[in-house]
Design a protein that fits this description.
heterodimer; A: mainly alpha; 7 helices; elongated; B: mainly alpha; two-stranded antiparallel sheet
Amino acid sequence: MAGRDRFDILIAGGMLVCVLTLGVLLAGGQERDPSTAALDKALEQQIAYQARIDFLHNLYQPVEDLRLAGQVSAALLKLDELARHYPQEAHGQILQAEILLERGVTRESIDHYVRALRLNGDYVDKASPLSRRSEIEQLVEAQLPVFAARVRKNPQDPALQKSLTGLYYLQSRLAGGCE
Amino acid sequence: MDWFERQNIIVIVSGLSLGVLGVLLVLWGNPQNSGICVSCFLENSAGALGLHDNPRMQYLRPELIGFVLGAVVAAFAGREFKSRGGSAPLPRLLAGVFLIVGCAVFIGCPIKMFFRLMAGDLTTLAGIAGLVVGVWLGLKGLAAGVHIGGSKQQADGAGIWVPLAFLLLLAFILWPPAFLLQSTRGSAAQAAPVLIALAVGLSLGVLAQRSRFCITGSIRDGLLMGHRSPLLWGFIAFLVSGFITSLATDQFKPGFYGQPGAHLDLLWGFLGMLLVGLLSVLIGGCPFRQLIKSGEGDADAGLVVIGMFLGAGLVQSWQIAGTTAGVSLYGKVAVMVGLIFVLVNMLFYRERLD
């Protein structure tokens, strides 16, 4: 087909109208659009996260209270009870790991830290309000050489091997990366 | 190889720039060992656009946009922007999905795999072996007549849609709409400043378009042509510059254990990268090269890019992506489905003499 005909002009005209309308919508439409506030997903996400943190604090407050009162066994029982209701919740695992570490039960403590981080990586984030990064860093720094030496002495001990693998996992999570 | 020929110099400069800038991006804020990772960037960007709901993986990565738009600028400047396509659209779209499946199971695209190696991560050796075997199998397939079909010149507008889509994504970065998501924690919250990331992406996009730099292409040419291949020398320049920059910036920590974003499911790392290598040879380039080709007006590569975005959403939503804890059952199944997909296509697209 040679040259431009009326159909081409019609298409070009329609396109011009659409471009102008788009320009008007983008230039001033956002302020007037009542649905925009409801669409602010980033804000919604932040609110939901903050609500989750508050919920966790409330949920596990009795455990913290028992710990402060020195009733460690009762705190562990309370954690067991909460774990039955919220089996996929990492915060309980973190608290259990901390209590066990305080009592010197290092192997089980490592297991619980690993379980917690598999469920939720926020605990190694520097900026997260849930962060336990420095505690986990101290654990890895202190225990990795100890468990590596023990595994060298007893290479057939599967429990020792499991703890060492757990420490390597924690070290890997602390190192960062994209996942 | 003539070292002073212009094209060869561009290839070497591309490799050097990729190695240095990729490591520097980590210093400027990107996650450890992920200065440049096409699959991670796609997963982050897919999350930012709402294609998955992992709140730790949502950020529209400017580098990704820079790669494509840099290629567009270079292609127009070099009068190489040509709309082409029309070859096996649906298999290419699905190939894009499975490219990301393979990368996500390994945790990283081929570029990141070598960045991980240059930072001392020895678990990547399994992935490297997988990628080389995948490329080698792909070459065997090509030699046996497997041919997905060549792109044909298309109407002028066919190749502009993916570049325009990336221009829209650039607009999203400059004027973020309310629906755009951005992680405040996790790896997607770690990012180089936007303008630096964009500048790096644009410059690498320009260089990669001019040089045709491609990780799997370098391995392919290395297997075919040995030391006579310019791409292989560009690849070596990338490895050397990345390694030296890693050493100089104290990021080199050799070992198998405790590496950032790495797992010890070595078999699945091997198979994931085998899938990537095999697919890349059959569709003509690694994930990075597909982005660059889509910026040159290649609508076939554009479909692969769309497939990669789709895959990036799926690997997060369906828990296919590998993590430091290892590869999930879904990840293993997805790799197997990917391998079946590619083998079926190798049968269907085989040109036979009779």
